[in-house]
Amino acid sequence: MELNADFVNRTESLFGKEIYSRFSQALDTEPVVSIRYNEPKMVADENLKPVPWSTLGRYLPLRPAFTADPLFHAGCYYVQEASSMFLEQVVKQYVKEPVRALDLCAAPGGKSTHLHSLLPSGSMLVSNEPMPLRAQVLAENITKWGNPLSVVTRNLPADFSSFREYFDLVVVDAPCSGEGMFRKEQKAVEQWSVSNVEMCAERQKEILNDIWPSLRPGGLIVYSTCTFNSEENEQNVRWIAEELGAEPLALDIPAAWNVTGSLVGDSLPVYRFIPGLTEGEGFFLAVLRKNGNAPLMQPRQPRLQMLPEKLKKEVEQWIESPENFIFVLNGDTAVALPKEYAATISALQQKLNVLHCGLPLATVKNNKLIPMHSLAMSIALRKDAFTMVELDLEQSLAYLHREALSLPSQPLGYLLLTYKNVPLGFVKNIGNRANNLYPAEWRIRKNPLDL
């Protein structure tokens, strides 16, 4: 791989000649492919090589055509870079009670879906992405993962200023110069420059400064990048500690993982993944505790438009443990909000651009319910609430391509389609055909059988 001379000189000086040599050789090999399973939907394949720092992470020997796998679209697993799964160690070692968490730069959703699998039961996660197209992808992936304790927002970090001392945990996977992605993205190689590194480092400080008031004293911030240089990594962690006021925290990890610590001659507890040493792409992470101690700020009681009783009784039959939810009407959408976080979600909706919250159940039209795709994806779905129709691979791909299906032997009305007993989505069977209710914007664009 042909690299910028400034990058080579800077990185070799930072790594040392031996580590840089191993790194350089790794850049000429194929990127590592890894996935992480969604345990409520799919059992992990124990025949695959595990990612050492992630319970449900697995390496794949080759990159398959994920688009042609219905289980991928059903949220049974997430295609995630192995190194970034290291976030699991932070949660396991430092998050012991339910939390109110914010994933600030969350698209496309790897860390957010991981957090939904990791955080203690009863935790609520807000996943945010400021860029409109990326925010839509994030909302799609969060919906497919299926956790009803989820909120997706599209806001700038400064927009959270109204939520002072509101979160126990903030994850900032900051936009960076992307040095760790050189093996996967040629564009990252071409766009690299020293000036871009400096610009990214300053932008990261702005992001951290904007979101800092929203973290309660005593709360945790996880700062990560997919780059190597010290300006965006160690120097920014030192800045968080000294300028914002935080204590860097160490993680207890095995030496066999070959995770590198600080490379600038200090004792900061930071964690750097370098291709050639660890099996994955480049990644950096630090976890810090904000100085002080204070309880979470509690929102006021929400003003909610409750779902009419007749419709409420119907949707209560669709989900497990309906007693844990409040059923509201947002516009023309029936939504199940977790009772313990209804006030929090209501407060977020008043101040932020909320794309997704709780469990959207159905569109209400002429006082009738049309079940939504998010219900089919939810781990709270009661599968026996609908007639289930098992599809084979060819039928499943046709459904995901949003083709009309013919199900003449099935009852009329809304049917839940499954593949390998995993829900794929709804159709409305009208006899001569079944109208496909898969979201148009999510459909497989190309002919699935050609993938």
Global Rg: 23 Å
* Strand-residue proportion: 15-25%
Question: From the helix content, strand content and strand pairing, which structural class follows?
Answer: alpha+beta
Sheet with most strands: 9 strands, mixed
Number of DSSP E strands: 21
- Return the CATH class of the largest domain: Alpha Beta
Question: Can you tell me about this structure?
Answer:
This protein has 451 residues and is an alpha+beta fold. The protein has 3 domains: 5-290, Rossmann fold (3-Layer(aba) Sandwich), CATH 3.40.50.150; 298-382, Roll (Nuclear Transport Factor 2, Chain: A), CATH 3.10.450.720; 386-451, Nuclear Transport Factor 2, Chain: A, CATH 3.10.450. The chain is 27% helix and 24% strand. It has helices at residues 5-15, 17-26, 70-73, 87-94, 110-118, 132-145, 186-191, 194-211, 234-245, 309-316, 342-351, 373-377, 393-400; strands at residues 33-37, 49-50, 57-60, 77-79, 100-103, 124-128, 150-153, 167-173, 215-225, 246-249, 271-273, 283-290, 325-330, 333-338, 354-357, 359-365, 368-371, 387-390, 413-419, 422-429, 434-436. The strands form 4 sheets. Strands 5, 6, 7, 8, 9, 10, 11, 12 and 15 form a 9-stranded mixed beta sheet that branches. Helix 1 packs across helix 2. The relative contact order is 0.12.
